[in-house]
Amino acid sequence: MSQATQSRGAVHARLLLALVVISAASLILAVSARQVQRKTFHNAPASAAQAHNPFSDSKDAAKAGAHLYALNCSACHGPRAQGNGDIPGLLGQSTQSASPGELFWYLTTGEPDKGMPAWNSLSSDDRWRLVTFLKTFPPGAPIPSGPGSPSPAMEAAMRAWPAPNPPFTDFRYEHPGAIRKITLADLPPPYATHSAGNGPQIVPRPNDAWPQAPPGFVVELYATGLHNPRLIRAAPNGDVFVAESEPGDVKVFRGFTPAGKPELVEIFASGMHLPYGINFYPPGPDPQYVYIGTTDAVLRFPYRNGDTKARGPAERLASLPGGGNHWTRDIAFTPDGRKMLVSVGSASNVDDPDTTPRETNRADILEFNPDGTGMRVYAYGLRNGGSGIAFDPLTGELWCSVNERDALGDDLVPDYITHVVPGGFYGWPWFYLSGSLQDPRHAGKHPELKSKVITPDVLLQPHNASLQLTFYEGAQFPAEYRGDIFASQHGSWNRSVRTGYDLIRIPLHHSGHSTGEYQEFVTGFVLPDGMVWGRPVGITVAADGSLLMSDDASESLWRIRYAKK
Ligand code: HEC
């Protein structure tokens, strides 16, 4: 119990500043939009603001509220109320600009269809204590944990939970080498189970925990002490670029010492707003620029092979729609170098772009000229494909890793990885995975689009949070791996029992095409009691043919190497 409690404080200590910046930025937008439309907090009735908090300014109530928070809210909103995946943080401007009465009203009614439960199961005094806590708690201070933190009891509870219904699985059954295949015929109807709030509780890696890979492969710790490492991409000369998104920098890692550590680490550029995507232009051995996808712009720096510091200031080539959820933007260049593709996730879970202006040009892959001009939509209806796009070197086809929607139940909707057809429509928000599967929250809309919905190539476990993908072009792994896709799975929150938190492989059988199967490749980041110590984000192939993977929970880089027998 105490270990979990302490570690939650320690591990998240540095997230807050950046999250305040993110929420401030997105909330300036939200607030100004709200002023224009004269809307209240989540459409609270005007009378809500009149309600009086019986505990305002009571320190005891705030403390009790913190305990209630740890018990009821932290699993979704994060142990420091910093937010979690799609779920907003609560100590930023949005919640702070709401009146106590509006917050009370919101806790009481919730927004179940968006994943926020109604808390009328708590007494009205307890709801006011929560409001007092939210209104008086200083951002960054450690939130005292509630009683009953998980450990042996939680482990037993995890074991007691019913086994998953194959082909669905969860962390208790995920292991290196397991092959999975999900088809449309396997899907339950919407709302077969309720929408879970099960965000990860991050703990430090216990001494006996280590990532597990199939026989013949070894996993080594390449670098530690990073700060929110996200996308990772090898440059043509073999240097490895890593986006540290929250501090806003990009670092370069070079080589392997005999002990398997980097020979050099430098900050290439800093001061960016949530950098994520990284790519090199023009394609080929002699790039002239590094492109960076920040959450609201495409930037580029002049670059020559071997540079470890930007040799000039950033040029801002194009603005991107920012704010809301899904802030990652990946970048890829067509193999002929003529076009740049940028993937931009939706701002919301399933808001209708027809009536929600902030969804314009989101849930899309956007195409530009490499100088940032000539924007058009390349493919659409990809809810959040912002975390991973790449061209298959064999076929020249673009592939994308997509986070599908939440709040329809444990086994809906599968995330997916697919090749992307130019002009293609992938369903969001009105349909999911097929024209015959309409989102119940948009029933009856857009019948004319039914026949256009493309079913993705590889369905993954629902809520996996599939992020970066890469094609294995190295020579170190056995020949059967050549050309296969590796993809990082950040792990679920909207599922009763966790899934994801692993690295998967999609075998393409040297054909450039998938049969729909994927294989769990590196697992072991979730402990038996459900606590999480590692979360894969980025994946790239190093010059020697090993894989390098970033992990933003232990804030490290892992190397996966084939050790010949
Ligand atoms: C099952 C996950 C889950 C749990 C548990 C949960 N929330 Fe939420 N909450 C959400 C989601 C998802 C949203 C965003 C809804 C939307 O899209 O508007 C949200 C939104 C909010 C907001 C509005 C934030 C904003 O920026 O507008 C507040 C305030 C809030 N929750 C408070 C709480 C409190 C207090 C608790 C504990 C009593 C709690 N939540 C528990 C999922 C959860």
What global shape is seen?
globular
Any idea how many domains? 2
Just give the CATH class of the largest domain.
Answer: Mainly Beta
CATH-wise, what's the superfamily of the largest domain? TolB, C-terminal domain
Low-confidence stretches: 1-38, 146-151
Percent of residues in helices comes to 10-25%
Given helix and strand content, the structural type is alpha+beta
Key features?
single chain, 565 residues, alpha+beta, Cytochrome Bc1 Complex, Chain D, domain 2, Neuraminidase, 2 domains, 5-stranded antiparallel beta sheet, 4-stranded antiparallel beta sheet, 27 strands, disordered N terminus, binds heme C
Please give a structural write-up.
- By secondary structure, the protein is an alpha+beta fold.
- It has two domains: 2-136, Orthogonal Bundle (Cytochrome Bc1 Complex, Chain D, domain 2); 179-562, TolB, C-terminal domain (Neuraminidase, 6 Propeller).
- The chain has helices spanning 2-12, 15-37, 59-72, 74-77, 93-97, 100-109, 124-136, 152-160; strands at 179-181, 217-223, 229-234, 240-244, 249-254, 264-269, 277-281, 289-293, 297-302, 315-319, 329-333, 340-344, 364-368, 376-380, 389-391, 398-402, 414-420, 431-432, 434-438, 458-462, 466-471, 485-489, 502-506, 517-522, 536-541, 547-551, 556-562.
- It is globular and about 65 Å long.
- The structure holds heme C.
- Residues 72-73, 75-77, 87-88, 90, 94-95, 103, 106-107, 111, 114-117, 119, 130, 197, 349 line the site of heme C.
- Heme C binds next to α4, α5 and α6.
